[in-house]
Specification:
With 436 residues, this protein is an alpha/beta fold. The chain folds into four domains: 41 residues; 111 residues, Immunoglobulin-like; 34 residues, no CATH class; 201 residues, 3-Layer(aba) Sandwich (Rossmann fold), CATH 3.40.50. 36% of the residues lie in helices and 28% in strands. It contains twelve helices and 20 strands. Strands 2, 4, 6, 8, 9 and 10 form a six-stranded mixed beta sheet that branches. A hairpin with a 6-residue loop joins β8 and β9. α3 packs parallel to α12, α5 packs parallel to α12 and α10 packs across α11. The longest helix is centred in the last third of the chain and has 26 residues. Pfam families: DUF58 (PF01882).
């Protein structure tokens, strides 16, 4: 029963003093309203003949807006007057073009398109919640309603990582071209693999002169070099408990994913093969051979649904997977937290075996809370104790960094906004100095 039927009952109640008997008046009034409700309900379009389908975007980058359209078909012989509430999970940020309180009209045999614009607030998969259709009669007194799984057409919008660090990609690619020697600069780009011989020109490094070839040709010739290509890079994203720590407005896992995407895009342009593994106590995602743009898109889709797991990361499992799957020497980039407990007890015991076969790089995003506690002067006694704990934590991180360096492990420990560009610079430095 709608508000209109309730209004009819209220009007009838005002006419009760006119009737000789109040009971007769109530009976007549109630019977008339019930008759109108039955007629109106019988004339309402049946919902069994209703069809619902969806079309639209299946993926969107975090911060962007996607459009998903609901197509509501009326297969009955009666016109449909209905209110439609297309609900999504709250983090999907759905804004329907037609409000749920508005009555839509669909003629018999026609299909109505109801678009919804979604601006998600979280990374991952955002599914539909429930579709509710309320069909009114021509008088607007009664309605039929249907909701639930049979009525709701399934649809899932995958929200890809924001990838803010892509703004650094042009500058990193320019440095890569300079390393490759394909961009004009001061001197030739450094390299490690012999390419060709050419005639000496002013400005060339005299150490590149090939004296034997120069003696045979009776002219000064220099060797040209190119950076190593088709190298292997393994990016390991830690999804354990330390990845749930919030660094500013986002968890550490999001900063690690952003750095992994920039590093993968840069290494793919450099001609290297990139494999990505996400794991904690068990492998969560694995993408191999991300050296082409299509593979890079697949990597973004694979990392999008990852969420921090409140378990301790099993570095023995990760080291075993790397040693079993990747036999050629590779650059292993471990995106994790530089925490003495997790790395000291988990990674250090298995590091000698891993570093004997691969070049290892540990990249960690600093916690801004620790930096604030050690830079701001304490104002209360509690602040002094907190600052002392922060200094002790930083000292333990320094000792852990020293222990990692003993195994020839490169450590990148910077604030979260700088993690992606600094990691990319470190990769470029290792590539230009033939340390991959």
């Amino acid at each position: 029963m709608t508000w209109r039927a309730a209004a009819l009952l209220a009007v009838g109640a005002l006419t009760l003093p006119v009737w000789p008997s109040p009971l007769v008046g109530v009976a007549v009034m109630t019977g008339a309203v019930l008759l109108l409700l039955a007629v109106d309900l019988a004339l309402a379009a049946p919902l069994r003949a209703l069809t619902a389908q969806r079309t639209g975007d299946q993926a969107v980058r975090l911060g962007g807006t996607a459009t998903v359209t609901l197509h509501l078909g009326n297969a009955s012989g009666r016109p449909l007057r209905a209110q439609v509430r297309d609900a999504w999970v709250p983090s999907a940020g759905a804004r329907p073009d037609v409000p749920p309180t508005q009555v839509v009209h669909v003629a018999a045999g026609e299909v109505l398109a109801l678009p919804s614009r979604l601006t998600p607030t979280r990374r991952g998969d955002r599914p539909t919640a429930e579709l509710t259709v309320r069909s009114f009669g021509p008088l607007g007194l009664a309605f039929r309603q249907r909701a639930g799984r049979p009525t709701t057409p399934p649809w899932t919008l995958r929200v890809l990582p924001r990838f803010d660090s892509r703004r650094h990609l042009p500058e990193k690619l320019a440095r890569l071209r300079l390393i490759a020697g394909t961009q004009v600069g001061r001197g030739r780009g450094p390299g490690t693999e012999f390419d060709t011989l050419r005639e000496y020109v002013s400005g060339d490094d005299v150490r590149s002169i090939d004296w034997r070839a120069s003696a045979r040709r009776a002219e000064v010739l220099v060797r040209t070099w190119r950076p190593e290509r088709d190298r292997r890079l393994i990016c390991v994203v830690d999804t354990g408990r330390t990845s749930a720590v919030r660094l500013g407005d986002e968890p550490r896992l999001d900063a690690s994913i952003d750095a992994a995407l920039l590093l993968t895009a840069l290494a793919a342009r450099a001609g290297d093969r990139v494999d990505v593994l996400a794991a904690d106590a068990a492998p969560r995602a694995s993408v191999g051979g991300a050296e082409r743009p299509a593979q890079w898109s697949r990597l973004a889709h694979a990392l999008a649904p990852l969420q921090p797991a409140l378990v301790e990361t099993d570095f023995r499992l990760i080291a075993g997977e790397l040693l079993r799957r990747h036999r050629p020497r590779s650059l292993v980039v471990l995106l994790t937290a530089l925490e003495p407990g997790a790395l000291g007890e988990g990674l250090l015991p298995v590091l000698p075996r891993l570093a004997a076969r691969h070049r290892v790089l540990v990249a960690a995003a600093q916690d801004p809370v620790l930096a604030a506690l050690t830079t701001e002067p304490p104002r209360r006694t509690e602040d002094a104790y907190a600052a002392a704990a922060a200094w002790r934590t930083l000292a333990e991180r320094d000792r852990l960094t020293t222990a990692l360096n003993r195994h020839n492990v490169t450590v990148v420990d910077v604030p979260a906004p700088r993690l992606a560009p600094v990691l990319a610079d470190t990769y470029l430095h290792l590539k230009s100095t033939a340390q991959l």
